[in-house]
């Protein structure tokens, strides 16, 4: 959305700085040139091209909101706008960038030793090394506190056993941040791909996020040196803080998916002629478009507000939950409604709304389900935790 875009009903673009607009335009141009021509094929084939990682590194979006170690050190709003344009291309693309920067890289940047940071962050920022984040388990998604993956001391080493499930980038990652229970509580460990006993499996036959690699991590007596532990990560709060970073990107990203859907529907409605005139001229179509555009602009303003709070250092976890809950379910509703405007054409990969709708079903679930975010907000309102 720009000031000359009729979808920008509330002059969202005027609220951005010149630098923020420039970053957004640069990422949008990258998506147009490198992603849109191919993403339907990636989705159909169920693949994500690893060779895109160095290109994203050159673009500067991998860990772009982190300081030092080859990272750009941009504002939270700039990072959010990048996520918006990336997810306008495809949720799988934004997921790759989000997991790389806000989960894998952030966990090292925030909780790692200087040696770990120097070893991994510059290469990950350049897209030369890919990371993943191993928290979710087959039996424990929303309840990570009860994870079964264990790490026990053996002299100066650690021995890890367990499994992680639904891990974005899992089967292509060069290093995994793995969270495990120890006698001292939950701790984080960096597990390089070539570590004996560490194996991965790509999850196939997905109906959603097909232009993204999802894997399972297995750890069978994986021996790690003491230097593999993230020294500053103590307790469940460490991985949850990483999730807050990733959820923030989703608030913007989901608005990007919605934007692409509405833009596609408007263009189609203006070109599709029925009963002697474009279907955009019919009242029912205009009502759909108007309702969706209002919801889209509201979501964009919510994302921007949360971005300003994050840059000010005052954002709270429940506020991110508000953003993710509202913007993802709004984007999903928009994607489904846009498909109805496209009619039969909307079920093909020639148009993006149904692809976005399928992807958003996953976004609605990962980084905290809609139910969990509802309960986070409920706890803030009432003071009672309904999780247990």
TrEMBL record:
Residue span, Acyl-CoA oxidase/dehydrogenase middle domain: 132-222
Stretches assigned to the Acyl-CoA dehydrogenase/oxidase C-terminal domain: 234-381
Membership in a protein family: Belongs to the acyl-CoA dehydrogenase family.
Superkingdom of the source species: Bacteria
InterPro entries: Acyl-CoA_Oxase/DH_mid-dom (IPR006091), Acyl-CoA_Oxase/DH_mid-dom_sf (IPR046373), AcylCo_DH-like_C (IPR036250), AcylCo_DH/oxidase_C (IPR009075), AcylCoA_DH/ox_N (IPR013786), AcylCoA_DH/ox_N_sf (IPR037069), AcylCoA_DH/oxidase_NM_dom_sf (IPR009100), Glutaryl-CoA_DH_mitochondrial (IPR052033)
Name of this protein: Glutaryl-CoA dehydrogenase
Coiled coil: none
Statement: the UniProt record of this protein carries the keyword Cytoplasm: no
Single biological process term from Gene Ontology: fatty acid beta-oxidation using acyl-CoA dehydrogenase
Ranges of residues in domain Acyl-CoA dehydrogenase/oxidase N-terminal: 17-128
SUPFAM superfamilies: Acyl-CoA dehydrogenase C-terminal domain-like, Acyl-CoA dehydrogenase NM domain-like
MF terms in GO: fatty-acyl-CoA binding; flavin adenine dinucleotide binding; glutaryl-CoA dehydrogenase activity
This protein's UniProt keywords: FAD, Flavoprotein, Oxidoreductase, Transit peptide
Keyword rRNA-binding: no
Listed Pfam families: Acyl-CoA_dh_1 (PF00441), Acyl-CoA_dh_M (PF02770), Acyl-CoA_dh_N (PF02771)
Cofactor: FAD
């Amino acid at each position: 959305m720009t000031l000359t875009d009729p979808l920008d009903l509330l002059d969202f673009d005027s609220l951005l700085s010149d630098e923020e607009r420039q970053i957004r335009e640069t990422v949008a141009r990258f998506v147009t040139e490198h992603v849109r021509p191919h993403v339907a094929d990636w989705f159909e084939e169920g693949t994500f091209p690893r060779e895109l990682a160095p290109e994203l590194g050159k673009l500067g979006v991998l860990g772009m909101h982190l300081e030092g170690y080859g990272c750009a050190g941009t504002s939270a709003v700039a990072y959010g706008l990048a996520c918006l344009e990336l997810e306008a291309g495809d949720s799988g693309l934004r997921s790759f960038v989000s997991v790389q920067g806000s989960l894998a890289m952030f966990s090292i940047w925030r909780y790692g030793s200087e040696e770990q940071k120097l070893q991994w962050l510059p290469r990950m920022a350049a897209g030369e090394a890919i990371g993943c984040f191993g928290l979710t388990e087959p039996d424990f998604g929303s309840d990570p506190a009860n994870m079964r993956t264990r790490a026990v001391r053996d002299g100066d080493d650690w021995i890890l056993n367990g499994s992680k499930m639904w891990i974005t980038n899992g089967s292509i990652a060069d290093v995994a941040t793995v969270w495990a229970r120890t006698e001292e509580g939950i701790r984080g460990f960096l597990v390089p791909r070539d570590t004996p006993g560490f194996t991965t499996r790509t999850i196939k036959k997905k109906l959603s996020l097909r232009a993204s690699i999802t894997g399972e991590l297995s750890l069978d007596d994986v021996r790690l040196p003491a230097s593999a532990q993230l020294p500053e990560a103590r307790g469940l709060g460490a991985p949850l803080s990483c999730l807050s970073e990733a959820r923030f990107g989703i608030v913007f990203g989901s608005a990007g998916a919605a934007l692409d859907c509405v833009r596609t529907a408007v263009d189609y409605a203006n070109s599709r002629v029925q009963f002697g005139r474009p279907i955009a001229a019919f009242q029912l179509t205009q009502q759909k478009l108007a309702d969706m555009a209002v919801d889209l602009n509201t979501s964009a303003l919510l994302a921007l507000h949360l971005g300003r709070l994050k840059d000010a250092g005052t954002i709270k976890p429940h506020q991110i939950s508000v953003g993710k809950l509202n913007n993802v379910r709004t984007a999903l509703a928009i994607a489904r409604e846009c498909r109805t405007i496209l009619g039969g054409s909307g079920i093909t990969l020639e148009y993006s709304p149904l692809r976005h709708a399928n992807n958003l079903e996953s976004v609605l679930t990962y980084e905290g389900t809609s139910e969990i975010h509802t309960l986070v907000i409920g706890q803030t309102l009432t003071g009672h935790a309904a999780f247990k």
